[in-house]
Amino acid sequence: MTASTGIGTPRTASPDLLRSVFRQHAAGVAVITASGERPVGFTATSLNSVAAEPPLISFGVGTSSSSWPVLAEAEHVGVHILGEDQRELAATFARSGADRFGPATDWRAGPQGVPLLGGVVAWLICRVVARVPAGDHRIVIAEAVLGEPPDDGRPLVYHQGRFTALRD
Known about the structure:
The chain is mainly beta and about 170 residues long. It has helices at about 15-20, 70, 85-95, and strands at about 25-30, 30-35, 40-45, 50, 55-60, 75-80, 105-110, 115, 120-135, 135-150, 155-160, 160-165. A hairpin with a 2-residue loop joins β11 and β12 (about 160-165). The longest helix is centred in the N-terminal third of the chain and has 8 residues, at about 15-20. It is globular. The N and C termini lie far apart (about 40 Å).
């Protein structure tokens, strides 16, 4: 006898099943940046705090991403926590073929040459310590070396396939 959750008939795991389940998982929105011959960046909802000592973070990046060739070699990355008013910035860095570092994007070259985005809730510069194969992605683990603590801004959230804000 199997227990029923009342949700429906279980399905065999697939990419579509994983995507549909994780649409229900609200996640904070970050933009990861790096510098090579040109600056690169992408919107990430897979950002995690890994350890406090040493201060480690992780994020996933697809190996087919236009950012991956630079991230595969980068010694440092920028991690930017977006605010609830930065939906368009998140969409720009999520959109394939977008001019991510064009005139509409407020950014500057920061420490270690890492592109730093303006107006974000908080940012870190992190030294990459590992790139772990995980299917068609890599999990990048990096140690925070410098940052700007958060202001009073509220974070941008990704839920059910769209960028949204927290509600009280």
